[in-house]
Amino acid sequence: EAQVTQNPRYLITVTGKKLTVTCSQNMNHEYMSWYRQDPGLGLRQIYYSMNVEVTDKGDVPEGYKVSRKEKRNFPLILESPSPNQTSLYFCASSLSNRVNEKLFFGSGTQLSVL
Amino acid sequence: GENVEQHPSTLSVQEGDSAVIKCTYSDSASNYFPWYKQELGKGPQLIIDIRSNVGEKKDQRIAVTLNKTAKHFSLHITETQPEDSAVYFCAAGGSYIPTFGRGTSLIVHP
């Protein structure tokens, strides 16, 4: 089954404790992206990657890192999480970054930073 | 860059009524307008899209309309059912991955 898999589904942590949210897709997609969803603000893009070793900032990249060492994986790293990073995070992928490509989203990771 | 405004933020209807969600965009170069539905506990999923060379597209109970002159597009759901309850996102884009609106929470009361 074609899917984007995120882990963990829920995560509670404390300020300053490094964490990684994993994302994997099994569709051989070139394009992958991370979004955060906050009430009233919709989906805001954090980082994206157009292929292996090619990443770029989205609209809200501060406090986040990503890497794309393999085509299927695109982890999101918070090296020193802060409470304002409490949010619902989604990983997404598509065949390419062309506008008419369907985006496939993971099921989300609810992060709480205390 | 593109700016997408979406209204209303919350929409409450009775089962069987119609629901309309409206979006406006700023970049006249945008030519692709997808709509995503996010059910509770899940990620958004593409439900319908429209390109700038057509004014309307239908798929069973849902339809999208586009007015390029006014730079707005809408999602219409007829004969709403409880399973239509979800958050709906519009998006707009020209060449690359589209920009999303802030979402509309649709509640369909049985």
Explain the overall architecture.
- The complex is a heterodimer of chains A (about 110) and B (about 110).
- With about 110 residues, chain A is mostly beta strands.
- Helix content of chain A is about 0%, strand content about 50%.
- Chain A contains no helices and 11 strands.
- In chain A, strands 2, 4, 5, 6, 9, 10 and 11 form a 7-stranded mixed sheet that branches.
- In chain A, β4 and β5 (about 40-50) form a beta hairpin.
- The model of chain A has no long low-confidence stretch (mean pLDDT about 95).
- Chain B is an all-beta fold and about 110 residues long.
- In chain B, strands 2, 4, 5, 9, 10 and 11 form a 6-stranded mixed sheet that branches.
- In chain B, β4 and β5 (about 45-50) form a beta hairpin.
- Classes of the chains: A mainly beta (about 110), B mainly beta (about 110).
- The interface between A and B is medium-sized, with 23 and 25 residues.
